[in-house]
Amino acid sequence: MSGPAEHGLPYSAWSLVKLSDFLVAGGMVDDISNEGPRVPLREESVSFPRVKTWKTSRDPVGGRWAGPSAAEAAATAALTPPPVDARRGTSRSPQGSLGG
After folding, report:
1. Does residue 11 register a pLDDT over 80?
2. In DSSP terms, which residues pair with 43 in a beta bridge?
3. How far is Cα 7 from Cα 22, in angstroms, rounded to an integer?
4. Which residues, other chains included, contact 91 with Cβ-Cβ below 8 Å and sequence gap of 6+?
5. What is the rounded distance in angstroms from the CA atom of residue 16 to the CA atom of residue 56?
6. Do residues 35 and 16 touch, judged by C-beta distance below 8 A?
7. Labelling 79: which of 6, 8, 30, 97 has CA 20 to 30 A away?
8. Distances (CA, A) of 27 to 6, 74, 84, 92, 95
């Protein structure tokens, strides 16, 4: 199998999408799905791993999440039900009980 550069294409490796487009544009097939080339390639022991991509943030702090704002934390706390005491089937107050 020849590489894309040997056909004057501006990339160094085939992806299934690029190969599918190339086959249709070259008139080798009328129509093919992007996954279509995988089966005949697999029969010839050629595999195409799934593409892994990473997105980078343009955030000046490097895309690190600083946590919820104070308003978001307060709103979440107001909507969160109190924890349930599994032994008693009752709600516990966050401070604990005094009578016990």
Report:
1. yes
2. none
3. 10
4. 81, 82, 83, 84, 85
5. 24
6. yes
7. 97
8. 17, 61, 66, 71, 73
Per the CB < 8 A criterion, the answer to whether 50 and 34 are in contact is no
Those residues with Cβ within 8 angstroms of residue 26's Cβ, 6 or more apart along the chain or in another chain: none
| Gap between the Cα atoms of 82 and 100, Å rounded | 18
CA–CA distance, 16 with 47 (Å, rounded to integer): 10
Per-residue pLDDT at 24 exceeds 60: yes
DSSP per-residue codes, the chain: ---GGGGT-S-SS--HHHHHHHHHHTTS-S---TTTTHHHHHHTT---PPP--------TTTT------HHHHHHHHHHSPPPEETTTTEEPPTT--S--
Cβ contacts of 60 within 8 Å, gap of 6 or more: none
